[in-house]
Structure formats: structure tokens, C-alpha cells
From TrEMBL:
Domain Peptidase M14: 142-371
Protein family per UniProt: Belongs to the peptidase M14 family.
Protein name: Peptidase M14 domain-containing protein
GO annotation, cellular component aspect: extracellular space
SMART domains the UniProt entry points to: Zn_pept
Keywords from the UniProt entry: Carboxypeptidase, Disulfide bond, Hydrolase, Membrane, Metal-binding, Metalloprotease, Protease, Signal, Transmembrane, Transmembrane helix, Zinc
Family matches, as InterPro entries: CARBOXYPEPT_ZN_1, M14A-like_propep, M14A_act_pep, Peptidase_M14
Record lineage: Eukaryota, Metazoa, Ecdysozoa, Arthropoda, Hexapoda
GO biological process: proteolysis
PROSITE patterns: CARBOXYPEPT_ZN_1, PEPTIDASE_M14
Segments crossing the lipid bilayer: 12-36
Amino acid sequence: FLSAVTVYNINIVVIESAFDIMKLLVLVLLATAVLAKHEIYQGWKSYYLGPSTTVQLSTLATLFDQYEVDVLSHPVLQREGVVLVKPEFQGPFTKALDTVGINYRVHADDVKKALDIDDENIAKKKQQSRTRNNGAQLPYDNYQELDVIYEYLRNVAAKYPDTVTLVQPASTFEGRPMYYLKISTTNFEDESKPVIFIDGGIHAREWISPPSVTWAIHKLVEDVTEPDLLERFDWILLPVVNPDGYSFTFSHSRFWRKTRSTDQHSLSYLCPGVDGNRNYDFAWNTVGTSNNPCTDIFAGGSPFSEVETRVVRDILQEYLHRTALYLTMHSYGSMILYPWGHDGSLSHNAFGLHTVGVAMAEVIDSKSLPN
């Protein structure tokens, strides 16, 4: 959560007409909507967890299920994680942590208040961005909403038609378009060029993920400092895999993670959505998933039940014969993960993946800010 001091500006106005009354009513309703947006998180707290043994790690998995803990970042040995806990479970959960000796400390004592402060800061940055450049450039000092990202993709494709192609492969469950860009100096016609595919935003609440993909677009098209990347490779960039869920986190529930489909279970009308990351067909619904549609890790009724994951599948299948690298961007945890995650075994590309991962980590570390 962003840290800030909440300041409310109250304007006293003289009502001179029915039109003024209407305008004031609209402003009051908007303010009320903003303040009520995070009511579902009233009383919630977030905690840092620091297990020190493998036994404690195993115990945490049980406690997470028992107390309906929402894990924002999984703790590992020597590295704290962050979790959200509902008001009714905070006492029992922390008591259980004390019993087994797992270190913990409060991350946010009032999650709703922290989210309200975030909203104020986001709105302020949004206004500054409009004033600064009329919204013509994507903000990288603020989170990027779906309509802003989509406008950017359309503008880039229109401005650089020789290298950029905008593709709309499908519409989401709720009817939103899905967009990705194909970036190539040879219009994807040179079969000898390897393809690099990068996507983001499959988990709706991971707001920092899509900007990492749009920044890659910016560096490949608008601010080209490494032209060899364009000469040597063709690129596919899909900033938001899960547009429905992503939009929902901005308008309704900040920590929503899944898609928004309602056709995958008899209870989907009460508990919509599927964890897209668990909806692929490889080892589907075997490890780290749930058959309960009300959990954040519901794998869906079948592999590729979600149109969003089918789009990713179709891109990979179309260019599999020359795909050199596939990156999917997530947050948070500062980790670079490679196969296999379901059983801990190594793929036949493990050495290359590890080498590339270490190189990426070293560069990221060299560019990171202190603390």
C-alpha cells in the first residue's frame, strides 16, 4: 500500500439554482462511491510472516486454508511473505502463529484505510498526468487503467504501422476486447526470426504487471535504444490477459484475482471467476489448485475453459515452431520462476533457463532502488 496522509478538502458553496443542486448531488454521490468502494475490507489487516523452518512452512499452508487467509506474497525461508486476514480470523490466526513460533508483524493495521489513501494518491497522479500531457503518454508514476492501456495500444499501432500490428483475437466473458501487439521489422514474414512473447495481467490485482509489458512496447517502438532486439527477433506483447478482472479491481474489489466468468460451476453465480494461471492444460487441477469456485485458486471446470487462457494458448501454438522465449509478468515477490513448478523437477531447458534467469536478476538488482 502507498503511504500518505489523508487530507480532505471541503468546499462551501452557495446554491443558486436547481442545476447547482444537481451538480452538488452528483459530487456527493461520487464521493460516497469512492469512500464505499473498499467497504468489504473494513476491519481487515495484513501481516508479514517469517517462517524459519520447513516445518513452519508446511504448517502455514494448513493455517491459510483454516483461516481463509489471502496470500499476497508467499513466505519462504529467509524471506517474509504478506497475507490478508479477515477480522473474524485475526485473533485465532495470530494465536496459532504464536503457538508454532512463526514470526509475524503487522503490515497494514487498517487495510480499508490504506486502500482509501491509495485511491486518493492514484486520483491525484491521474489528474497531474492529464495536466502534464493531456493523457497522451502512459503514466509510469501511477497505475495504468485498462482504457488508458487500450488507447495507448491503438495509438502506437496507428503511429508506427510499418512495425506494429494491433490484433484483437477475442472478446472476454463480459464482452471486453482483448488486444495484443505484434512488433516486427519484417511483418512476421521472416520465418528465421525467433519470436519472443510477453504477457501480463492474468492475475487481476497485480497492477504492476501490465506496465512492465507496456514499457517493453515503449522501448521497442518509441524509444529504441537497442535496435538489434528488433532486427533479431519478432515480438508479441499482450499487456492484459484478464481485462474483466483487471477492470473489476479498479471499480469494485481491489484484491480480486480471477477472471469474471460465471459458467464454470453451479456456484459461479455467487463466486465467479477462474484463476487463469491454473486454467492451462499442463498438469491441470493437480497441485496448488482447488475445486471450490469460491477460492482464488479455482482451476475452472476444464482446461482452457476461459477465453483469456485460450488466447494465450493460440498465440503459443501459432508460433511455437519459432518461439525462443515466453515471459509472463506477475507481482509481487521479486522472483524469476521457471519450470517445473508443479513437482519441483527440472525441464530439459533448465540450464539455459537458469542462466538467463540469473542474468536477468543481476541486471534488475543493479537497477533497483535502495531498500
